[in-house]
Amino acid sequence: MKITLKVWRQRTAADTGRMVAYKMDGISPDMSFLEMMDLLNEQLNTRGEDPVAFDSDCREGVCGTCSMVIDGRPHGPATATTTCQLYMRQFADGATITVEPWRAKAFPVVRDLVVDRSSFDRIMQAGGYVTVHAGPKPDPNAMPIEPEVVELSLDAATCIGCGACVAACPNGAAMLFTAAKVSHLGLLPQGQPERYTRVVNMVRQMETEGFGACRNYAECEAACPKQISIGFISRMNRDYVRATLVEPVDPRGTMAPQ
Amino acid sequence: MTLELVANIPHGRIEEKWASHVDQIRLVGPRNRPRYTVIVVGTGLAGAAAAASMGAMGYNVECYCFQDSPRRAHSIAAQGGINAAKDYRNDGDSVFRLFYDTQKGGDYRSREANVYRLAELSMGIIDQAVAQGVPFAREYGGLLANRSFGGVLVERTFYCRGETGQQLLLGANSALAREIHDGRVRMHTRTELLDIVVVDGRARGIVVRDLVTGEIASVAGDAVVLATGGYSNVYYLSTNAKGCNVTATWRAHKKGAGFANPCYCQIHPTCIPAAGDHQAKLTLMSESLRNDGRIWVPRKRGETRPPSEIQEEDRYYFLEERYPRFGNLVPRDVASRNAKDVCDEHLGVGPTGYGVYLDFRDAIRDRGATVIEGRYGNLFEMYERITDEDPRSTPMRIYPAPHYTMGGLWVDYNLMTSLPGLFAIGEANFSDHGANRLGASSLMQCLADGYFIMPVTIADYISRHPRGEVGVDHPAFKDAEQSLRERTEQLLSIRGKRSTESFHRELGKLMTDHCGISRNETGLKEALKTIPDIREAFWKDLSVTGSGAELNQSLEHAGRVADFLEFAELMCLDALTREESCGCHFREEHQTKDGEALRNDEEFAHVAIWEYTGKDRIPVLHKEPLHFEALPLARRNYKT
Description:
Low-confidence stretches of chain A: none
CATH topology of the largest domain in chain B: FAD/NAD(P)-binding domain
Shape of chain B: globular
Largest sheet of chain A: 5 strands, mixed
Largest interface: A-B, 81 and 84 residues
CATH architecture of the largest domain in chain B: 3-Layer(bba) Sandwich
Number of strands of chain B: 19
CATH architecture of the largest domain in chain A: Orthogonal Bundle
Oligomer: heterodimer
Number of helices of chain B: 16
Order of helices and strands of chain A: EEHEEEEEHHHHHHH
Distance between the termini of chain B: 49 Å
Low-confidence stretches of chain B: none
CATH class of the largest domain in chain B: Alpha Beta
Shape of chain A: elongated
CATH class of the largest domain in chain A: Mainly Alpha
Distance between the termini of chain A: 61 Å
């Protein structure tokens, strides 16, 4: 296969970037998209040029590291697929393919296609946990949980934190990510004691990080490599409303460290 | 300098060792813990669990990972499950049986006391994970579900679809996130360990490189914990993530930590075969597939029919025929070796001839498409995406790939290396899996180390030494920083013609050919002769563009490959020295008439621990003899 790549190049966060075109030949349809990018980088290296910086790690679609907007779509044209699981057979011979980083205010570009997603980590730190220390615990079978509930929780927990939902959203909202994290624990009995403080703290952090507002475009769901449903956003909104309007806010919500 | 190799195994009956050890070790009181700084490197299951647990106990924790988020460490990719001797299935499981299975699976090359402790702690891990909100699969009644995994006769594996690793890591990471939020753990992402700093024979801190700014800086601590994973990427093609590397453990080794059993590397039987030269990594398909899939190759060489048209009598179900009792569920090393065997006999399938079928036809017929889809749906999709073939209608093609390294830094019962103050947990240490790891045991070991063992045992070391004795202004830190800056400059100034990738591939191929599924003296000697040549070429002809003061992924990779090029030699030397076949270490010279591994307990029932003696000098071998008191030595037999 022959292809023309148009890749976003940006040396540092402060630089203004630009698209640079690279022609490539001899691409096998069985190559993964990232193997094609590896090949580009080897060729750039041979020419003494700086390779294209991009994030990837497990290359199995589960670590959530890879993050490219390909032909305008986060993770490219295939549904339910991360960039690392995308294969060149998806593209036509002779195609021109554009490759850009995630674009969102809360994900500043670090270099080329690498962005800073630490805002996601801070949302998790604001409340994405059940407070338990390591040590002896009751036997889990003492607390049966309906398999449907566990499966639904796992549907949410399967989020890999890649950020495609944010990159796909015209507003750069992080509602799907936050909703997935809130729902994973909010659905389970273990997550009940902190359920309402969790949703409030995580949503507040999400707003502080500069993510946009949700306008129900549902682009996030379409781009999600794990096909997480926007139904979780409604669930989160319900919990948020209960926490802030109906139910009194738990005063222990911001319990100081001991 | 000689290595300090006292295993510190407690006295008493094996069932009592851990409890009495905890009763007797020194502790640090809650008020004193915040005064001590513990450095944790790596945020996989072991590292995240350890950092979170120690943070919650009150220690001051500095935690590092090279990924952009701690959640991305490679534990996340573990698919199949985690073992625990809960005996929920009432099928005769017990702590002793899990201990027995692990010892037997490891071919009696691990330390009994450690393995028993692991089995003992296994149940608490499940309790801990469920309390954190890990959504393990449940049965209709709401109780936890189990499945079986290779090499055992009970169902003791807990799972979350095909993403058990991700869910357990999210659990550990959520605990870590809480501690970060509360300020007891300070998390440093996109930061790579480059060296360990030793003063007066004790680990006092580390030197790291900020991968975004390129800044090299020192961190001092009262103890250092390495949770930096394994070294399967020495083969270039492995199931590990692209970033996995040996740098932390290798640098620790060069600073005085003994490296144990480096030749033990598990080659996982169920991976998608390489499609061509462009292949950047290999993808594992969970071993749980072997529960329902049947492995076969055509009986005839040069078979051209598509698999669906090959009649039953023309199919060679080689594992079922050779191992009737365990069938397709033999341990990983046995399954891998047999797959290589049939492919070496030219019975293999696929474009390269190095592949065997894993067939779900019968399982779908007997149990129904819905049940099989429920069990393996996401794995089927993953396979289809990569190969463009649907495993529901045509058998999967699989081939073994390097997956997990049982070797690692030698540690005592407290998980401390031979360098005082330096601990190693999870895959980074050598401790519990002997010469071969059973399926669903790595998550168990990482979490046992991280949640329950190291946070307790580290106190015994910490409490014996004054805190904050050495700061980053000590000349040892300055010297280390300086030599690392020089090394970075050196890598950048070669300005040769070859990419890091090309050297890594060359080393990987050499290691796959000569130090892979099976090994022999000639091959290993050849590898030992060739590795220094590759290393020399690397330092003469490497091309790394850019500078050290920016995000430079080629530079990161070059530094890691430079360490692999040194480490590979130790691996081959260890493989050459171990004149026996055990577990995944199969020396062709040592096999039975029917091709089974032949152990040599008289000469090799020991841990081989290598001491670094300097550049271009032969390392010194030390031996920790293994004692088999609770479970007498027996030959592994998966045939009858």
